[in-house]
Design a protein that fits this description.
alpha+beta; six-stranded mixed β-sheet; 11 helices; 23% strand
C-alpha cells in the first residue's frame, strides 16, 4: 500500500526503467501505456493522456482525450521482466480533461459502490474468487489447437495432471506481485485448472482477478500453451466459472450493530436482481451454453451446502459467507462486483428476505421438470433485453453505460 511519495522513492532506489499504467475497457480487458520514470511525477499531478475514441464503448472523436491517474497503492514489480532496469505496474483511474472522474471507468464505478455501501450500510463487502481456465496446446505456427494439455480430472495429481508446474509458477508470480492465492488444483475438465483467492476488499479483489488473468496468459504462453477463460471451451465438458464468495465486515470508522446478521438481506438482494445483472456476469453467447450444464447453475435459488443451487451457503467455519456460482471469467470483475454491492445495499435497506432454501438436487432432471423456480436467462439476447429494461441496472451503472459484448 504505497503512497505517491513512496512510489517516487521506490522508482529511484530500485532502478525502475519502465512504468506500466493499466486501465480497463467496459468488457474488463486490460489496456496499458508505458512511461519513463521522468514522467511519473507528471502522471501523479495531471495524468497521462490517451485516445478514448480508440477504446470500444468510450468516447467518439469529438471528446476523445482522457487521462490516466495512477493509483500508488497498486504498485507491483512485474517479476518476469529484467531484474536490472525493472518494470512496474500501477492500476489507474480515468479522468476527464477537467479532472473529474470519467463516468465509464469501471474501476471508479466500483469505488463509488464501495463508498455507498459504507455510507448507507456501515459495512464493506469482502470478496474471494475462484477462477477456472483451460490449457490448450499450440500448433507449429503458435496458434491454439483443440487439444487439451492433459486428460486429467478433478483434483488429479501428476503424472496425469500436467498443469501442476504451471499452477505453481502462477502462484509464485502472484505472491511476488503481492497477491496471496489460497489454493490451486486440477478441475473436472481435461486440461482445466482452478486457482482460488483469499478474501479482500472488493476493489482489491477485482484488481487481483485482472492481474491473475494477465499472469495466467503470460505463463501459459511462455510454456508453449494457450490459456482459455471462455465459459464453455469444449462442448460436453465442464465450463469455466468464476465463483464469487461474499462476506462482509464493519467498515472502519463506522458504528454499527455487530450483533445484526445482514447476510440474509444480502442474499435476498442478490436473488431479487440476479436475472437483471446476468448480462454483465455472463457476457458472451457461449456463457449460456455453460449455465445449466456440467454442474453450472440454471435456477434462481439458494441452499445450504447445496452445489446445485445458484447461491450456496457453505458450512460455517467462523465467517458467514455466500458463494455465487453463475459468473464466468469473461465478465468485467469491476462491473460484476458493483452490481452485487448495489444489490446487497437494496437487500439491506429494504430487509429483503430470501425465499426458502432448496434442498433438492437441481441437477436431477426428474426434479427440475416439476420445479416452479425461475430460471436464469437462456441466451445472451434474453439477458440483454432484461438488463436494458432494468431500473436497477440504470440506477446502478447509469444511462451512460451501454452493455458491451465480448464476442466470444
Amino acid at each position: 500500500m504505497y503512497t505517491k511519495e513512496e512510489v517516487l522513492d521506490f522508482i529511484q532506489e530500485e532502478d525502475v526503467k519502465f512504468i506500466r499504467l493499466a486501465f480497463f475497457d467496459l468488457t474488463g480487458k486490460q489496456k496499458n501505456i508505458s512511461i519513463m520514470p521522468s514522467e511519473l511525477e507528471r502522471a501523479f499531478e495531471h495524468g497521462i493522456p490517451f485516445d478514448a475514441s480508440a477504446i470500444e464503448g468510450f468516447e467518439g472523436p469529438q471528446k476523445s482525450e482522457l487521462y490516466l491517474l495512477p493509483d500508488p497503492s497498486t504498485l507491483a514489480i512485474i517479476p518476469w521482466r529484467p531484474a536490472t532496469g525493472k518494470v512496474v505496474r500501477m492500476f489507474c483511474n480515468i479522468l476527464t480533461p477537467d479532472g473529474t472522474p470519467y463516468s465509464k471507468d469501471s474501476r471508479t464505478i466500483l469505488q463509488n459502490a464501495c463508498r455507498k455501501l459504507k455510507e448507507e450500510c456501515g459495512i464493506e463487502m469482502m470478496v474471494g474468487t475462484e477462477v477456472e481456465f483451460y490449457l490448450f496446446k499450440l500448433d507449429e505456427k503458435g496458434e491454439p489447437t483443440t487439444e487439451t494439455f492433459d486428460k486429467a480430472g478433478y483434483m488429479d495429481i501428476a503424472p496425469e495432471d500436467h498443469g501442476e508446474n504451471i499452477r505453481r509458477e502462477i502462484c509464485f508470480t502472484l505472491e511476488q506481485m503481492g497477491i496471496s492465492p489460497e489454493a490451486s488444483h486440477h478441475e473436472e475438465g481435461p486440461g482445466q485448472n482452478e486457482i482460488d483467492f483469499h478474501y479482500s476488499d472488493a476493489l482489491t479483489a477485482a484488481d487481483n482477478v485482472a492481474t491473475f488473468k494477465w499472469i495466467v496468459n503470460t505463463k501459459a504462453s511462455s510454456n508453449g500453451l494457450y490459456a482459455d477463460f471462455s465459459p464453455k471451451p469444449i462442448a460436453g465438458e465442464a465450463g469455466n466459472g468464476m465463483h464469487i464468495n461474499i462476506s462482509y465486515r464493519k467498515a472502519l470508522g463506522v458504528n454499527t450493530d455487530d450483533s445484526q446478521n445482514l447476510l440474509p438481506y444480502i442474499l435476498g438482494g442478490i436473488l431479487k436482481y440476479i436475472d437483471e445483472m446476468t448480462y454483465f456476469l455472463n457476457p458472451a453467447d457461449n456463457s449460456y451454453n455453460r449455465l445449466g450444464s456440467s454442474k453450472a447453475p440454471e435456477y434462481i435459488s439458494w441452499g445450504k451446502e447445496n452445489r446445485s443451487t445458484l447461491i450456496r451457503l457453505p458450512s460455517s467455519q467462523g465467517t458467514q459467507r455466500l458463494e455465487l456460482r453463475s459468473p464466468d471469467p469473461l465478465c468485467n470483475p469491476y462491473i460484476a462486483l458493483t452490481l452485487l454491492i448495489n444489490a446487497a445495499i437494496e437487500g439491506i435497506k429494504n430487509k429483503l428476505e430470501p425465499p426458502a432454501a432448496v434442498e433438492e438436487n437441481l441437477f436431477d432432471e426428474s426434479i427440475t421438470k416439476q420445479t416452479t423456480l425461475k430460471a436464469l436467462p437462456k441466451s445472451l439476447a434474453e439477458a440483454k433485453r432484461i438488463a436494458e429494461n432494468s431500473e436497477f441496472i440504470k440506477s446502478t451503472l447509469g444511462l451512460v453505460i451501454e452493455p458491451v459484448e465480448t464476442n466470444r
